[in-house]
Structures are given as structure tokens and as C-alpha cells.
User: Fold this.
Amino acid sequence: MSSVPSVVNFFRSLLILRHHLEKIFLAFAYTCRYSTYCCRQKGNVMAKHGDVPDLSEAQIEIMNVIWDAPAGAGVMDVWKALAAKRQVARNTVQTTLVRLEEKGWLGHRDSPTGGFIYFARHPRNSTLRNIVTKLVETAFAGSADDLVMALIQGRGVSKQEARRIREMIDKAERSKS
Assistant:
């Protein structure tokens, strides 16, 4: 008779264990569904620009390095490119890359040598187009003329840049005709 309560306790323990395993399984299944959803949403596919916050000057500098590396770039690659222009800490570069990924600007994949290779989730041309559009709308009250005048008077343009600008204007005028 003393074995009956122990058998009952054993089965009761099995039921409790089953209940806990079901909870764990459901949590795991939810996590898998969520991460699959996130991977589909945030995978290597280019995302819409409205989904991400604006870039700071330092972030644009890092994005330019990433955009210039079609296969992507690691922390050291980005750090070396920036360090050639100005003094910057490797940890600052790494932190900024992580923040850019969190904001949706970058994705990453494992590097065969360890670490991550970061890649852009937004193309350079449309990103720069959006930045310039916002700049024209806010700083120049919607006037592209004022933007061009500020560029010419402030920085100036080389003969080659002036030629390319004229070609782009001619092309834009022909396409509107």
C-alpha cells in the first residue's frame, strides 16, 4: 500500500513536468515564429526608407564605407577606412555599426574568419536622394535653386562636376519634354 502514494506522486510529477514542457515548447514555437517573421522582414531585402530614422553625419560616413564594399565590410574594414581620414576608436565604430543595424540601416552575416560582415539594407542612391530632398525642404524652403547656389558659392564645383551637372540637367529637361 505504501507504493500507491509514491506511484500517484510519480504520475503527478510527470503531469507537472508535462505542463512545464508544454509551456517551454509553446514559448520556443512562438520565438521561432517571431524570428522567422523578423528574418523575413529584416533579411537581406532592402527595406523602405520610411521605416528607419535619419542618419547622423558620422553614420553617413560609415554607410559610405559599407556602400563602397559590395560584399560588405567588417568592423576592422570600416575602422581602417575611417582611421585613414580621421582619428576614431575601433569600439566607436563597432558600437555605431550595431546601432545602425538596430535602426534597420544595416544587416550582418557571420564572417568565415569570425565576427560579422555588415551590409547595407538601403541603397546609396535612394538614401542620398531622401537626404537631399529633406535638406531642400527644410534648409532651403523647397528651393532647389538656393541649394545649387549655396553649393556653387560655398564649396564650388570643378569643371568635371559642372559638365556632369549640365548633362544631368539636359537629360532631365529632355525626359520632361
